[in-house]
Design a protein that fits this description.
The protein is mostly helical.
């Protein structure tokens, strides 16, 4: 666009952050995920909220990965999701073709997806004549902003039937009354916190980092720096379990 001089980016020195500064502690805990998913399972079964939240928690997929899924990428019988990088057809993955992989899903997740596809999904194609898994009546394929709204909306304490920890009146709180404003709730969380929670949950259950790395498309080093939200006490007790009999 000729707005700045050529090679300006090479002249700007990026700050070097410590491991603590370059990571975030916010994540969706197992307890919080169970409360939200139990509510959806009872009152909004196979809804778009239910499907998106189930995928966020049980797979740890990035937002771009969830919106990239087509009906043909979901194998209900084999309980698999196939992730494909399709930049020429409207969807991309974080690490491009290196992010392509198959992700195993639980039987319960497969059952929710099957019921959603059969009974709830809006039958729409996108501008590339693809059949998205998650659809909208307007654009066909769901946008990233819609997935963010799902996450911010469902992680509000008042949405879960809990008392507001911020001394707000839900009746007059914009973040409580309007899902588009849900991000304004200090307790609401982005889709990425589900991914961090999923990875932390796997690590807390002794899934080796190498296995988590392949499933979540992230290196063990990045997991250590950005995704492992286990407390130091939890980590040492897990190590103790491996070392006690040696």
């Amino acid at each position: 666009m000729q707005i700045v001089e050529e090679n300006l980016s090479n002249a700007v020195e990026s700050p070097t952050l410590s491991s603590d500064e370059n990571s975030r502690d916010e994540y969706v805990s197992e307890d919080e995920a169970e409360i939200i998913l139990d509510h959806l399972d009872r009152f909004e079964y196979a809804s778009q909220d239910h499907v998106v939240t189930t995928l966020l928690w049980t797979t740890g997929l990035r937002t771009c990965s969830i919106r990239s899924l087509d009906l043909g990428d979901v194998d209900i019988d084999e309980e698999l999701l196939e992730l494909r990088h399709r930049p020429d057809r409207g969807t991309t993955l974080k690490n491009q073709y290196a992010s392509e992989r198959m992700v195993a899903i639980k039987p319960t997740t497969a059952a929710i997806l099957e019921d959603y596809i059969e009974h709830t999904r809006v039958d729409q194609s996108d501008e590339f004549d693809r059949d998205p898994l998650i659809t909208t009546t307007v654009n066909g394929r769901v946008g990233s902003s819609v997935i963010r709204k799902h996450s911010y909306g469902l992680t509000r304490p008042c949405e879960q039937g809990l008392e507001c920890p911020h001394e707000r009146d839900p009746e007059s709180c914009d973040a409580a009354q309007n899902r588009s404003e849900a991000y304004g709730c200090p307790s609401s969380k982005s889709p990425h916190t589900w991914r961090r929670g999923h990875i932390t949950h796997l690590l807390s259950n002794d899934v080796p980092p190498e296995i988590v790395s392949g499933r979540a498309d992230v290196t063990p080093e990045v997991i250590e720096d950005h995704y492992d939200s286990r407390s130091l006490r939890t980590r040492v007790e897990q190590r103790r379990g491996y070392l006690d009999n040696i």
